[in-house]
Amino acid sequence: WASKKNNHHHFEPLQKKLIQDGFDSEKIKILYKQPQVKFEADGVIVLFTYSESKVNYDQFSNDWSISKAKKYMEKYKEDLARTEKAYGVDKNVITAILLVESSLGKTLGTRSAFNILSTLSSLMYPEARSDLYTMIPKAKKTSRKKYEKSAKRKSKWAYGELKALLEYADQEGFDPAEMPGSFAGAIGLAQFMPSSILAYGKDGNNDGTIDLLTHADAIASIANYLKRHGWRPGISRKKAEKVIYHYNHSEYYVKAILKIAKRLES
Length: 266
Prior knowledge:
mainly alpha
């Protein structure tokens, strides 16, 4: 029972649900039969035990990181200038976001976004929820009641993102199981969730595709996201904080982005 051992059976009710919700049954079955598709327990456990406040954002505003970001701005100055003109979003802020999100494209996440989102989605079913709870290290476990509540909430959110990933893969013609992602299922240089790609993704280099692994597209997509959330040229610091908070609901993050952007000005 190899499939039992890697908990692959947790994806069976999930596949039925996706098919009921209108996805092509043949495609779904083929997708979930791929050998790299698995119940990604260790990645998902990180999501249940992660604390934003423990992230060391200072590492991104040190001299070495700033010099790297300035070189990046030089290399992609045409994309950044074109985007800043089209969207009215400060190129220093766009670069700061790329620096923090993916180290300017160097770290795209080591997990499969599809596996992560499928695993999280499967937590809508009691058996998968139970299984995952037993795998959380004792030192990091919360109460069962707290976990159940959190798992149900996260699974609902993840299912929406899983559907968005499948739609995006369909739209752009790639295998969703091959897309690298973070432990939360975020994708590409800008670390967008799939639903954000569908809503805000832009084709920055006019090649007819929206590919967040491409610098021009990632730059334009970040700018579009910020503009749509209220960014305007000459925006006040207070308003800028509010806009960036939409990108990542963390005060630490917002302050780090603005600190980096300020250092990139000089």
